[in-house]
TrEMBL record:
Gene3D superfamilies given in the database record: YVTN repeat-like/Quinoprotein amine dehydrogenase
WD repeat boundaries on the chain: 160-199, 273-312
PROSITE patterns recorded: WD_REPEATS_1, WD_REPEATS_2, WD_REPEATS_REGION
SUPFAM superfamilies: Quinoprotein alcohol dehydrogenase-like
Top-level taxon: Bacteria
The keyword ATP-binding is assigned to this record: no
Organism: Herbidospora galbida
Protein name as it appears in the record: WD40 repeat domain-containing protein
Keyword Phosphoprotein: no
């Protein structure tokens, strides 16, 4: 049968057993035992997104339908609402989602499957991204460029204006929200006080992540720019090319794009890790090791101290499209409609 690329991947632990949950557009999401590789069953289609917290998983289908699944029984419950969901975020026991064509932000308490969703009216459709901070959900919008803070206790909504065009991406850390979009502005927002700062980027911001007290903004011009999260001070740029994947751990940044590059932020030095024969589409950091996968159908493992490959590349019949670490040290790699589980090395 024809196989589809694995485009969504998450890991969880069910009754002490490590599992992987993976899906692709038009295909049912599957659950695997990470230790044995056994197929544990299927969930609904998750072409847009899949996430897991505790023994529950949330799938968002290509048609925008969100379902909450109990991974112990593999039974799912659709979340009520219009048929298309534009954005989803997980935090603690809650799943937050907004409808692409609807007028509500909804919150479902995953700790109590029988509870009704909380509903916050929205001024217009078109939510492009969601992130969470303690006690609130923050949404971004395609049309007006505003961010909106939805207080989960009072239901009140505050508008954070600033962007002049669509907002593509949000990230958050310790109550601070970072936003980026078409207008090239990077917004840094203290959600509790409403205070904000704007950083001007010379081009659209396609992706953001926050780590090690820094903002990493991947620009459409192929430069990943660094800023201090607390002050907004620019900390230089990394010539990454257009980034497909980025991961940050402590003082190390790994970026996959046309090639693979790693930076030590303490010395502000970067180097290329040579080995892939095409675009790098998935990266993951753990300790002193880096793992990367790409369109050349290979999975490669690197020593970050020396920059050398520490094992022969693992070759798959399809490109590597997703990587996810489990806390046990196992690595789940998505390639086509398969999940390959790698055990941690003893060396």
């Amino acid at each position: 049968p024809r196989r589809a690329p694995l485009t969504t991947l998450a890991t969880a632990e069910v009754d002490g057993r490590a599992v992987a949950v993976g899906g692709a557009p038009g295909r049912r999401t599957r659950v695997w035992d990470l230790r044995t590789g056994a197929d544990l069953g299927t969930l609904g289609e998750a072409g847009r997104a899949v996430a897991a917290v505790g023994h529950r998983a949330v799938t968002c289908s290509s048609h925008g339908v969100v379902q909450v699944w109990d991974l112990r029984t593999l039974r799912g419950t659709p979340l009520p609402g219009p048929p298309r969901v534009g954005a989803v975020a997980l935090a603690g026991d809650g799943v937050f989602y907004a409808w692409e064509e609807g007028m509500f932000l909804a919150a479902e308490n995953l700790a109590d499957g029988g509870s009704l969703p909380l509903r916050h009216p929205l001024p217009s459709p078109g939510v492009s991204a969601i992130t969470t901070v303690p006690g609130a959900v923050v949404t971004a919008w395609w049309r007006d460029g505003a961010l909106r803070v939805h207080d989960l206790e009072t239901g009140e909504r505050r508008v954070l204006p600033g962007h002049t065009g669509p907002v593509y991406t949000l990230a958050s850390e310790d109550g601070t929200v970072v936003s980026g979009g078409l207008d090239g502005l990077i917004g840094i927002w203290d959600v509790a006080t409403g205070a904000s700062r704007s950083i001007v980027s010379p081009c659209a911001v396609d992706a953001l992540t926050v780590g090690a007290g820094r903002i990493f903004a991947c620009g459409a011009d192929g430069v990943t720019r660094l800023f201090d999260l607390g002050t907004g001070e620019p900390l230089g740029g990394l010539p990454t090319g257009v980034a497909h994947a980025i991961d940050v751990h402590d003082q190390t940044v790994l970026v996959g794009g046309a090639d693979l590059r790693v930076w030590d932020l303490r010395g502000r030095t970067g180097r290329r890790l040579r080995g892939h024969a095409g675009a790098v589409t998935a990266v993951a950091l753990r300790g002193g090791r880096a793992v990367s996968g790409g369109w050349d159908h290979t999975l490669r493992t690197w020593d970050l101290r020396t920059g050398a490959e520490v094992a022969p590349p693992v070759t798959f019949p399809w490109p590597v499209s997703a990587l996810a670490w489990h806390h046990t040290g196992r690595l789940a790699a998505g390639t086509s409609w398969e999940v390959v589980v790698l055990e941690p090395s003893e060396h």
